[in-house]
Amino acid sequence: MKLYNVWNTLNHPFIAADQDLTQSLDKFAQKNGLEAIVREMHAKIFVTQVAFNLREESPAEGIEASIEPDDIAFIQFSSGSTGQTKGVVITHCNVMKNIEAMNISNQITSTDRSLSWLPLTHDMGLIAFHLTSTFQGLQQFIMPTSLFIRHPTLWLTKTSEHRVTQLYAPNFAYKYFLDAYNPLTFASTDLSSVRFIMNGAEPISPTLCFQFLDEMSPYGLASNTMLTAYGLAEATVGVSFGEVGNLTSYVLDRRYLETGKRFVEAEQGSEHAVSFVEVGKPVKYCNVRICDDQDIPVEELVLGNIQIHGLSVTNGYYNNPTATERARTTDGWVRTGDVGFMNQGALVITGRTKDIIFINGQNIYPHDIERVAEELEQFDLGKVAVCGVSNTLTGSESTVMFVLFKKDVQAFISRVREAKAHIQQRMGIELKSVLPIKQIPKTTSGKFQRYRLQERYEAGEFDSVEQSIENMLAHSHETKETLPARDSIEQKLIEIVESVTELRNVGISDNLAEAGFDSLKVTQIHQSIEEAFPGKLAISSLYSHTSVISWADLIRQDRVELEPVVIDRSFFHLERGFEAVTYQFTLPASLVKDMRLVAQAEGIGIHVLASAMYAYLLHTLTELPGIEVHTAIGENRIISPIRLNFKQFDTMKSLFQNVNQQVITEHSEQAFPIEQMSQIKTINTEWAIIPLYGEQHLFKASDDLLNYYDLIILVTDEGDVMQCNCQFNGRKLKQSRVKRLITNYVKGLQLLVQPELK
What integer pLDDT is reported at residue 303 of this predicted model? Predict the structure, then answer.
């Protein structure tokens, strides 16, 4: 959804993408009713492979653009997946000034070597690492993010190999690395070349920083290499950086962290102690001030709202004057939404006024999760609130959902399972807990006070009910009837799930989505499956199929996937059921004679011609360039899917030849025996059909075609005439529209043969 929201925000959007992405867009659109937007997108997609081919065929020098400092360089969009996305406008002046400032602050020179696995769609990966390194002319090494997720220790192995001096990673990465690190395989690693490791993009845990530096010290990593940083998209990326070798932390009493008041220190390990790190002094071209809730600057050591101003700071949000005005003070400073204090010019971040949750380097918006949860029948609008909570052991954040619920907690367990499964499947986010609450705190204007829920949770108010729910879930898991593995494939899959997660006693039919794995765990599970069964299971299948038995079925069968054809909604009943309907019609002798003449002239069979017209007619209903029609033509009981991109056909002749080529290649990878129809996989799309054209003699009554296909034309060639049966589900498709479709089919055949007779 993020891509579609961005598309709707821009004035004149174009997409540069490879062919695989365009196909993914079509599938996603069909599943989510976004066909109109995708049709608009297809007209403005710049396919990279085509561009590269054109460049090789017709090489030409580029034309240098005339660029002014205040022209837009790029737009950084927020990561909201359901609501309106905000685009931070970054000018060439903004980005060049911020790059210059970071190079000065971090003393980067052309002799440095940098390495990062952060995606170049992440501002820390793109600007702080890639563009800054490029600007300074130093050698940089880019590791694919997926490779780091699969093999995190390669990060420092490659650092040693290439004598890297600069590393970049958010807080979660250090814990993720340490969990995978094995001293026995790390002995030859030499990290003495590392000058600094930039740690930013999410709240920083001082405990984790010290642990990482301590465990890596035997390999030559100096104890003063951790470089803390603070930034945000509105500042291009960098606001402040600590000094190498100066990792300063503060232990404060969480009860006294209030805006406009001075903080109170606490003893390390005491009940109310919470630790923060200094993130350094503001960089050049970015001024920082701390203000109270009336935007009046406060003194040092007093907590307040962090505001920024300068040449590297954005002028606002693209096409969003409301958000721009809300973010700015009357004197032109930008509100960051973060809270902190200054000490001798250095900044310390203590919290946020906004509700963003940081998980694995990503910004998660609570209202996004709330909206997705409200898709469930038991979760009413306005009765679900989500917040982030701190995990002092890992230095990371977790997501907790609160649901308005006033009955006994035993009756709440089904909601816990349902919410965890739904959020994991729809968003790839793991909910730490789903908790009942009798009243959700709100402002006088009715807005959720999520920070109040966070405070109450971290104060231990919900510990008892959380433990009760965990015990009930564990008990139900232990006492449930678990189906054991039936073969080596299922046993291997169970071992993978249990090794990656904390689950035990996993059965082959368990709904694993109820465990609420986040995208990181799903990626790890898929990597292990890929190693055991290469190329047999796509990562998307782990979201659409949620049990070991369904994964094993996919691995065993390598099933053919039926692609639906999205057609006009007027064909469909709103309320669905099942009623088998058959319309019989006859292609008269005169028409059949003419069809044979055309087919003979084209060097194809009459059924190829008839199926091509069927495909063409469906294409006129969908307006999408590509469709798939299944065919059964010839003497063998083989079904051959034909996939047609109508952008490639400028004449009916080219369509005929393409269909003929696909039909006669009945032993292609996608062809399958009719007896194996029970193994095919159907992609369910609301306003779509799966069509079939076949010769009647190839099928038996027991084949139950309407279990798999929505619109079927079966033809018997009697020599002079052709008898046709059209079968469909009359409780899904409207009979009047199907009748009209058949009439148009016959008319299309009549028009098709007329020019050939002249």
Answer: 92
Q: Alpha-carbon distance 283 to 279, whole Å?
A: 11
First CA to last CA distance, the chain? 52
In angstroms, the CA 198 to CA 225 distance is 9
Instruction: Report CA torsion sign: 613, 615, 621, 623.
Output: negative
CATH of the domain spanning 482-556: 1.10.1200.10
Per-residue CA distances from 745 to 6, 361, 591 (Å): 40, 55, 12
Nearest 5 degrees, angle CA 244-CA 253-CA 449? 100
Q: Quote the percentage of the chain above a pLDDT of 90.
A: 42
| Measured distance CA(93)–CA(269) in Å, rounded | 46
Task: Say which DSSP state 678 is in.
Answer: G
Residues of the chain whose pLDDT is less than 50? 80-83, 445, 559, 666-667, 756-758
Contact predicate 161/191, CB 8 Å: no
The CATH fold assigned to 565-753 is Chloramphenicol Acetyltransferase (3.30.559)
- The burial class, CB within 10 Å (0-12 / 13-18 / 19+), for 107 is exposed
**φ, ψ for residue 315, nearest 5 deg:** -90, -5
Structure tokens at 290: 């701390």
Tokens 């971290």 belong to residue: 458
Please write the tens of the pLDDT for every residue from 23-41: 777 777 777 777 778 788 8
CA distance 744 to 726: 13
Task: Characterise 137 by phi-psi region: left (phi > 0), alpha (psi -120 to 50), beta (else).
Answer: left
- Contact (Cβ atoms closer than 8 angstroms) between residue 431 and residue 400: yes
The helix/strand/coil state of 382 is coil
3-class DSSP state for residue 364?
strand
Q: What residues contact 124, with CB distance under 8 A and at least 6 apart?
A: 118, 168, 170, 198, 200, 201, 231, 237
E-strand stretches of 249-372: 249-253, 273-277, 281-282, 287-291, 304-309, 334-343, 346-352, 357-359, 362-364
Instruction: Report the half-sphere exposure of 630 (CA within 13 A, side-chain side).
Output: 27
pTM of the model as a whole: 0.58
Determine the topology of domain 364-478 in CATH: GMP Synthetase; Chain A, domain 3 (3.30.300)
Domain 251-352 annotated CATH 3.40.50.300: no
The Cα angle at residue 607 between residues 603 and 613, in degrees rounded to 5: 95
Task: Using DSSP, state whether 331 is helix, strand or coil.
Answer: coil
Which letter, b or e, does each residue of 641-655 get, where b requires 16 or more Cβ atoms within 10 Å of its Cβ?
Answer: bbebebeebeebeeb
* pLDDT for the residue 330: 95
Q: Which residue shows structure tokens 């669905």?
A: 576
Every domain of the chain and the residues it spans: 2-64, 77-241, 251-352, 364-478, 482-556, 565-753
The percentage of the chain sitting over the pLDDT mark of 70, rounded to a whole number, equals 89
Angle at 359 between CA 268 and CA 510, to 5 degrees: 115
Helix (H) or strand (E) holding 586: strand 580-587
Q: Among all chains, which residue has been given the structure tokens 């995990």?
A: 391
C-alpha distances (whole Å) from 603 to each of 155, 594, 599 are: 59, 14, 6
Q: What is the pLDDT of residue 608?
A: 94
* Beta carbons of 127 and 314 less than 8 angstroms apart: no
**Into which CATH architecture does domain 77-241 fall?**
3-Layer(aba) Sandwich (3.40)
Q: What are phi and psi of 536, to 5 degrees?
A: -95, -20
d(CA 500, CA 514): 16
pLDDT number for residue 79 = 53
Q: Is 632 helix (H, G, I), strand (E, B) or coil?
A: strand
